[in-house]
Specification:
The protein is α+β, with helices and mostly antiparallel strands and 186 residues long. The chain contains five helices and eight strands. Helices cover 28% and strands 35% of the residues. It starts with 11 loop residues before the first strand and ends in a 6-residue tail after the last strand.
Length: 186
């Protein structure tokens, strides 16, 4: 079984980005993202209505990290600590060495390769430090931009579930994409 013991939060760097621990100082930027209908369009969660909701989310993320049940990075440019988005592993299935990846990004930075760059760093950490065997992403099949990021990082669609998810009075479809370590191009 996969044994995780997060001790010191891992700071990851890419050419342009620093992926760091989310903090209470990020509450306004995270609220901006989580309350933005454009950002949340394909994320089946209610829009954040207050800073208190975002503070609770930050606490939940910290609790999951301390319990070795998940890890989420804040994405920033190296020269500016402002939060651009988040990316991380949650729903870690330790007995199967598998985790689900999730991410959001400010629309101001869409189409600039930022999420691809961040995902490469996070996948590298997941496969080399967490010893994951596979990573999955559950995505709305209409979210072409997210699917493009996944496919650019060598994820393959392994399932398409029709109306398997009920949210806000509607049944929605889900696509499941995965990346296995042997197919990973580090």
């Amino acid at each position: 079984m996969l044994e995780l013991e997060f001790k010191q939060f891992p700071i990851l760097e890419t050419d342009r980005l620093i992926l760091r621990e989310l903090s209470k100082n990020d509450v306004h930027d995270l609220f901006h993202l989580r309350s933005n209908p454009k950002v949340m369009h394909y994320i089946d969660r209610p829009l954040a209505e207050s800073l208190d909701v975002v503070y609770e989310l930050i606490d939940k993320i910290a609790t999951n990290y301390k319990a070795n049940d998940g890890i989420l990075w804040a994405i920033s440019f190296k020269e500016n600590p402002k939060l651009l988005g988040t990316i991380g592993f949650w729903r870690i299935t330790k007995e199967h060495y598998r985790a689900e990846i999730g991410y959001i990004l400010d629309p101001e930075h869409w189409g600039k390769g930022i999420m691809h760059e961040a995902m490469k760093a996070v996948l590298n950490y997941g496969f080399t430090h967490m010893n994951l065997h596979s990573v999955e992403a559950v995505v709305n099949p209409d979210n072409d931009a997210s699917i493009s990021v996944l496919e650019r990082n060598k994820f393959k669609r392994e399932a398409y579930y029709r109306e398997n998810y009920y949210y806000q009075g509607k049944f929605l479809d889900s696509g499941v994409y995965s990346l296995i370590i042997s197919e990973w191009d580090n």
